[in-house]
Amino acid sequence: MSAEEAKFELRRVLERLGFQVKEMDSEILAEKGSKAVRISLKELGRSELNIPQTEVVFECEEEIYRSILERLRLSRMGG
Asked: How confident is the model at residue 34 (pLDDT cuts 50, 70, 90)?
């Protein structure tokens, strides 16, 4: 997945979780009351199958991280 695709998906998930989202070049910053999330994205190039690869680093509480991953899994499976 390219960085732009990842940014779009992450922004959508954060907004559904009730966060106010701000995008910067390669980062997403989100706040919800006293909770904050910082997500850094870095393009790694392409895999052997010519698929874009992106490194995603989360800086947030474990509970928020698990919520984001669960929402991403459900959205990618069509749930």
From this structure: very high
Beta-bridge mates of residue 29: 22, 38
Mean pLDDT throughout 62-70?
95
Quick one: which H or E segment has residue 23? strand 20-23
Contact present, 55 and 7 (Cβ < 8 Å) = no
Query: What DSSP line would sit under 18-66, residue for residue?
Result: T-EEEE-SSEEEEEETTEEEEEEEEEEEE-TTS-EEEEEEEES-HHHHH
**Cross-strand pairs, 27:** 40
Runs of H (alpha helix) within the chain: 3-16, 62-76
Give the pLDDT confidence of 6-31 residue by residue, as tens digits: 899 999 999 999 999 999 888 999 99
